[in-house]
Amino acid sequence: MAGPASPLTTHVLNIAMGVPGSNMAINLYRQDPSTNTWSLITTGTTNADGRCPGLITKETFTSGVYRLRFETAQYWESMGETCFYPYVEIAFTINDPGQKYHVPLLLSRFSYSTYRGS
Amino acid sequence: MAAAESSPLTTHVLNTGDGVPAARMALSLHRLDSQLMIWNMLSVGTTNKDGRCAGLVSGGALSPGMYKLRFETGSYWESLGQTSFYPYVEVVFTISAQEQSFHLPLLMTRFSYSTYRGS
């Protein structure tokens, strides 16, 4: 039943524990260029593999500035731990919506990194 | 000359794509007003040629709360005649104990970045 894959994907990895970051709430927003306000596009939760399929469809994936918000403190709290970062937001610019974009988050309680992947 | 090194919050921005400090990058520190749920800007600065920005916090310790360090990375890459995947980078963090000092570096390329809580 799976439709075409989302052109935008993410992958959360808990690099402190060497496991996928599963059951983490994430939100995707897009910025309206004329008003500079943000609209919520998708709400999701990462699966057991730390992924969140279906973030956006090809049809609605337009050029613009997007923001992925990861509820990192909530994630660590669910495991009885604190996190230096209450949440992580990654803002990125999509110039060519015909391409695929992979925006992963590698996370520990006191560090994180991201990169443009494929 | 102010003892800028005693700021409880320091940063260091490194352009790891080119292997140089990220000089002349604008950045700003904000604190969340948890009653009004709005961000208040505490200070603005520009990194020096070593990628550091002295005096981000004046007047003693940072009180507990939620803070945001915003780096104008998009403008930085533009000033080098390049594009970047990220228009800016914002690192939001929680301070819970009054007496600590924090080092929040940013290591970045045009298509990646990382940060950690250092000392």
Automatic annotation (TrEMBL), chain A:
Chain residues that bind substrate: H11, R51, Y115
Reactions catalysed: 5-hydroxyisourate + H2O = 5-hydroxy-2-oxo-4-ureido-2,5-dihydro-1H-imidazole-5-carboxylate + H(+)
Keyword list, A-Z: Hydrolase, Peroxisome, Purine metabolism
Subcellular location: Peroxisome
Family matches, as CDD domains: TLP_HIUase (cd05822)
GO molecular function: hydroxyisourate hydrolase activity
Gene Ontology cellular component list: peroxisome
EC nos: 3.5.2.17
Pathway entry: Purine metabolism; urate degradation; (S)-allantoin from urate: step 2/3
Stretches that traverse the bilayer: none
All residue ranges annotated as the Transthyretin/hydroxyisourate hydrolase domain in the record: 3-117
Pfam families named among the record's database cross-references: Transthyretin
GO biological process, one term: purine nucleobase metabolic process
Family, similarity comment: Belongs to the transthyretin family. 5-hydroxyisourate hydrolase subfamily.
Task of the protein: Catalyzes the hydrolysis of 5-hydroxyisourate (HIU) to 2-oxo-4-hydroxy-4-carboxy-5-ureidoimidazoline (OHCU).
Quaternary structure annotation from Swiss-Prot or TrEMBL: Homotetramer.
Protein name, per record: 5-hydroxyisourate hydrolase
UniProt source species: Cottoperca gobio (Frogmouth)
Taxonomic path: Eukaryota, Metazoa, Chordata, Craniata, Vertebrata
Gene: LOC115004622
From TrEMBL, chain B:
Major subcellular site: other
GO BP term, example: purine nucleobase metabolic process
Pfam family, one: Transthyretin
Enzymatic class: hydrolase
Domain Transthyretin/hydroxyisourate hydrolase: 4-118
Pathway: Purine metabolism; urate degradation; (S)-allantoin from urate: step 2/3
Subunit structure: Homotetramer.
Family indicated by similarity: Belongs to the transthyretin family. 5-hydroxyisourate hydrolase subfamily.
Protein name according to UniProt: 5-hydroxyisourate hydrolase
